[in-house]
Structure formats: C-alpha cells, structure tokens
C-alpha cells in the first residue's frame, strides 16, 4: 500500500510579489506562480506519481495551483475537495499591508514574532496555533483516512496551513517551527507508515522564496 501524501504550497501570488500580507484575501497567481505550479506537476509526473483525490482551500491561488498541477499530470478529472479549514492563516489587521511598511510601523522584532511565532497572533488575526486548530482536525478526520486507505492524496494549500501539517508530520516543536519555510510551488512528498507516521519524505529543491 503506497500511502502517498503530497503537500504543495500555491505558486507565487500577486500579493507575494508585492510583499503584502495576504491571509484570507484572494489574489490570483502571477505568471511565475503559474509556471511554478506547472513545474511542480511536471516533476511529480516525471517521478511517476498519480493521484486519486486532491484537497485545496477556498482561496483561488491554492485552487488554481491544484488545477495546474493536475493538468500537467494529465489528471484534470481527479476528485478535488475544497475546504475552508485549509485556508491560509488570517492575518487580521495586517492583511493588505506591505511587509516593509509593517516593519517600519511596529519594528522588525514584532513583525517577525507575528509571522513566525507559534502562538502570538497579529492584531485581529490568527496565530499558527489557531491555524493548526482548524487544519489538524480536518487532516485527521478527512484527509488522513483516505491516505491510510491507500489513496494517493494531493493537498494544495498555503504556507501556514501547510506549516501546521508539517509540524506534526516532521515532529517539529513550537520553537523549531519558527524557522520552517515552505517555498511556493515545491511539492513535499511523504510516504506514511501503517501507524500514520512518516516513512519517507522528499522535496523538490530550488531557491526558496521567503515571503509567506
């Protein structure tokens, strides 16, 4: 039984390019983001992977990334399930603000804490802990059973919703999660054991875009 779980952060969005806090706002992919998604699909196809089901968020950048990956693999007809639980973390009052402007206003240390800490939310928004509180139950109740049944599963979502999953899969702590970056458009390929823990993990390497 394969027990394949592939996680993919969406390709670069228009607001990633402009260095804006995005959260639940809904910009489209840039041309580079489209290319990143297509490259991810080609790479997965070249590795011989196929999918039985795909999960994505309620936001367009993740949905289009998911569709482009499957299109490149010749699998556009794969069942695709959208769920708000997989949305990016809500950046609250920071949504739509330029990251550099935010640093000037609140200071580097405060903005870094909002972006990378586990349990400190931005004003009016969600911390990673809050995000995990909706992502992980959905994973355990809806996604994981399909992986454990032998279905090959793609999850196309966001930097922080995927950080919440990777924290559990990779056994990271609330401190080590702060340094974890998930690059746009790069699949994380997991094979799970019968006890739901990770048997193997592989990552397509390229330069990482650090704008979350």
Please give a structural write-up.
Belongs to the phosphoglycerate mutase family. BPG-dependent PGAM subfamily. It catalyses: (2R)-2-phosphoglycerate = (2R)-3-phosphoglycerate. Homodimer. The chain is of the alpha/beta class and 212 residues long. The chain has one domain: Phosphoglycerate mutase-like (Rossmann fold), CATH 3.40.50.1240. The protein is 39% helix and 15% strand. It contains 7 helices and 6 strands, in the order E-H-H-E-H-E-H-H-H-E-H-E-E. It has a 6-stranded mixed β-sheet. Strand 5 and strand 6 form a beta hairpin. The longest helix is centred in the middle third of the chain and has 21 residues, at 128-148. Mean pLDDT is 94; it is low at 207-212.
CATH superfamily: Phosphoglycerate mutase-like
Shape: globular
- Name the helix and strand elements from N-terminus to C-terminus, one letter apiece: EHHEHEHHHEHEE
At the fold tier of CATH, the topology name is Rossmann fold
**CA gyration radius, whole angstroms:** 16 Å
Give the class from helix and strand content and strand pairing.
Answer: alpha/beta
Strand order of the largest sheet: 3-2-4-1-5-6
Architecture per CATH nomenclature, i.e. the level-2 architecture? 3-Layer(aba) Sandwich
Continuous helix count: 7
CATH class equals Alpha Beta
Number of structurally distinct domains: 1
Please outline the major beta sheet.
Answer: 6 strands, mixed
InterPro entries: His_Pase_superF_clade-1 (IPR013078), His_PPase_superfam (IPR029033), PG/BPGM_mutase_AS (IPR001345), Phosphogly_mut1 (IPR005952)
Pathway: Carbohydrate degradation; glycolysis; pyruvate from D-glyceraldehyde 3-phosphate: step 3/5
Subunit structure: Homodimer.
GO molecular function, one term: phosphoglycerate mutase activity
